[in-house]
Amino acid sequence: MSQTPTDTSDASRRIDARIDELRDWRGDVLARVRALIHDADPDVVEDVKWVKPTNPHGVPTWSHDGLVCTGEVYKAYVKLTFAHGAKLDDPDDLFNASLDGGTRRAIDVRERDALDSAAFKALFLRAVTFNKAKKAKA
User: Fold this and answer.
1) Separation between Cα atoms, residue 29 and residue 91, nearest integer Å
2) φ, ψ dihedrals at 135, nearest 5°
3) DSSP label at 122?
4) d(Cα 69, Cα 19) in Å, to the nearest integer?
5) CB-CB contact of 106 with 94 (8 Å)
6) What is the pTM of this model?
7) Nearest 5°: CA angle at 106, between 129 and 61?
8) How far is CA 67 from the centre of its chain?
9) Alpha carbon distance 84, 101 (integer Å)
10) How far is it, in rounded angstroms, from Cα 55 to Cα 96?
11) What string of pLDDT tens digits covers the 138 residues of the chain?
12) CA angle 124, 87, 102 (to 5 degrees)
């Protein structure tokens, strides 16, 4: 059973269902990352976007003053894409995918990968801080 955040919105229930449906390491990774996100930022807002016939589950997203991160599930990895990752300091070198773009950066987590919890939460909070600063300038 997935770890459910305090948010009981439809999006949160859909993410719960997706995690439960996966029943493998990918669901475990998504549940763990989700818990880290909620631990880092209790005010984060969950949503499910980009639902379409070829992706009926959509993509879990986490926002705070704008999109922070998405959690896409593929066969061989879970991709955590940070909307403004190219603008973030990454002293722990978590970003390992989408490194050539000018805006986004991603972390691909494969089955046997270890994700540094403290480093991930710090990166997530840097992304929230970026969004808040960007919103304040607008």
Assistant:
1) 22
2) -65, -40
3) H
4) 17
5) no
6) 0.90
7) 65
8) 10
9) 10
10) 24
11) 333 344 458 899 999 999 999 999 999 999 999 999 999 999 999 999 998 898 888 999 999 999 999 999 999 999 999 999 999 999 999 999 999 989 999 999 999 999 999 999 999 999 999 999 988 887
12) 125
CA angle 44, 73, 14 (to 5 degrees): 55
**Alpha helix stretches (DSSP H) within 1-83:** 10-22, 25-40
**DSSP 8-state class, residue 4:** P
Residue type, 96: N
| Torsions phi, psi for 71 (to 5 deg) | -130, 90
CA-based nearest residue to 125, from 68, 67, 48:
68
